[in-house]
């Protein structure tokens, strides 16, 4: 812990080790009441006896462990909800305009099963080829079209080349979808709850502060508590917004959201 009372510099591993060393209530009483020769105690017992002389020693350690992990956990939740929000916004574009009808994304998987007369080319092949040509045509500038009008084959080859580049880049565009598909809504919600409940460890330490216990640790802990409460409120707002977007996407692509309530992120697994 530095001079300002911040525990982050010591690392979470140290605090985790100290938390595991915490004695039971019975052991704590025995060590506190021991007035014999300290050299007769083992190294661990001697260390614990000295630590127990510090007011609220292990409660402080638990609070410091929470603080040491806080930013990492907040950043993870932020990025998770951001991925869901970006994906939800992208998939929600135009869903409520022009009287569009909902359809199941699972239906797209059947494109690979519908084959042409040659028994090899599937409808999926055709769709991909059309996307390649369409994207390639759109990418070609007007000036280039004028210059290459005399060579239709050249135009077709160029269209396909540019279209393939666009299709090849789809994996980058779907990066957030992949992240969203790998998430579990219940797990994310439990992380938010755990993060919020963990603040009680910090509040508990401050609750027992006495006038003679003032110092950098308690001052920095008070500042941390206020900052953490604000960040958790923002995280909870991010969670609500992200889950709302997921629900909107599910309603559009599946119609009945009640069937998907248990696994709301299944919509991103197609």
UniProtKB/TrEMBL annotation:
Entry-linked InterPro entries: FH2_Formin, FH2_Formin_sf, Formin-like_plant
Highest taxon, organism lineage: Eukaryota
GO BP term, example: actin nucleation
Protein name as catalogued: Formin-like protein
Protein family per UniProt: Belongs to the formin-like family. Class-I subfamily.
SMART domains named among the record's database cross-references: FH2
PANTHER family for this protein: FORMIN-LIKE PROTEIN 6, FORMIN-RELATED
PROSITE patterns noted in UniProt: FH2 (PS51444)
UniProt GO MF annotations: actin filament binding
Organism: Trifolium medium
Pfam families associated with the record: FH2
Domain named FH2: residues: 1-270
